[in-house]
Amino acid sequence: MAGNSFGNLFKVSTFGESHGEALGGVIDGCPAGIEIDLEAVQQELNRRKPGQSSIVTQRKEPDQVRLVSGIFEGKTTGTPIGFIIENTNQRSKDYSHIKDQYRPSHADKVYDEKYGFRDYRGGGRSSARETASRVVAGAIAKQFLAGIEIKAYVSSVGTLHLNKPYNELDLQNTENNPVRCPDAAMAETMEDYIKKIRKEGDTVGGVVSCVIKGVPSGLGEPVFDKLHAELGKAMLSINAVKGFEYGSGFAGAEMKGSEHNDLFNADGTTRSNFSGGIQGGISNGEDIYFRVAFKPVATIMQKQSTINKDGEQVEMQGKGRHDPCVVPRAVPIVEAMAALVLADNMLTKRSNKI
Ligand SMILES: Cc1cc2nc3c(=O)[nH]c(=O)nc-3n(C[C@H](O)[C@H](O)[C@H](O)COP(=O)(O)O)c2cc1C
Ligand SMILES: C=C(O[C@@H]1CC(C(=O)O)=C[C@@H](OP(=O)(O)O)[C@H]1O)C(=O)O
């Protein structure tokens, strides 16, 4: 099974299944001499971990990371950084009912078809539990990117939208509530809504917005490896993601050039930023901002029709501990993937200077 590595120069490979012994990864290409704050790495994992509030999956995992190589006396050595997170709270019996039948809109059927066999416990490799490894790698990338600030937050849950641009929000408030929405009143409305949806045995989608400040100009490799294309791939590789837009995004399609053009100031900065900090695939020094759309979780606690391995129509109802809405826990994952893209592009920029 290929496809488990991300990045070219700052490269991470992840391993592990939701109900296996452990998850983990190897980061290759992280430069030597970076001071690593292990508590900050753990803090990022705590933001993502299951069981953290009443509006996420109730699986209780400590998600304690163990760094096993590549760091000596608190600094990266330039050798591969290996890390492990043990699984401690699997409840595999919840999944025996999907051994021979498929959850609609999860990855069960396609994994069986592609590989002829699958670890059905907890969704195996297709589970978003894998994203714990991304968060570790992203936390190390963030430390390499000192001076660049990456902040994601929840901007929609279902049809509840926070209709304010990021520069009118105080993003310091994002971590003050379990939804991770920086507007306290909207966060409360969203939280109540997620609770109501959970009671109904249903799930709901949402949007994570992200802003990156302090990115130097010149990151991104046209023509195929444009910075926004790399960000798009990174975000679309996260479980349950259905959409990515940067800058003006789909709204830009409704505008005129005379409204949309980012006019220059004399110092080369721009008066507006519909470009989202990237022009021609290269960062221009303005804020990079983008949005990521997540679908409603597939495993619902309501009866739905599906098929079994023999192609018979059957009824099934989800079991186990699932997220009613993924966006509160997706915030640190989005930040981690953005950090990995920037770290990789930073190293590429260094390597193509004569
Ligand atoms: C943070 C996070 C938590 C998730 N939790 C669940 C969950 O509890 N149950 C579930 O069925 N899907 C959950 N998902 C989504 C599935 O992992 C995903 O839908 C599945 O792998 C199929 O892939 P696809 O939706 O990208 O096509 C979660 C996704 C994320 C990002
Ligand atoms: C365990 C995590 O989330 C899991 C993501 C997930 C899925 O299908 O993506 C399904 C559930 O898995 P399980 O029933 O095995 O607990 C979630 O709890 C995690 O993110 O660490």
From TrEMBL:
One GO term (biological process): chorismate biosynthetic process
Top-level taxon: Bacteria
Keywords: Amino-acid biosynthesis, Aromatic amino acid biosynthesis, FAD, Flavoprotein, FMN, Lyase, NADP
Keyword Lyase: yes
SUPFAM superfamilies, alphabetized: Chorismate synthase, AroC
Free-text comment on the cofactor: Reduced FMN (FMNH(2)).
Catalytic activity, reaction form: 5-O-(1-carboxyvinyl)-3-phosphoshikimate = chorismate + phosphate
CC terms in the record's Gene Ontology section: cytosol
Stated role: This reaction introduces a second double bond into the aromatic ring system.
Family: Belongs to the chorismate synthase family.
Summary of subunit composition and partner proteins: Homotetramer.
Protein name from the UniProt record: Chorismate synthase
Lineage, top ranks: Bacteria, Pseudomonadati, Bacteroidota, Flavobacteriia, Flavobacteriales
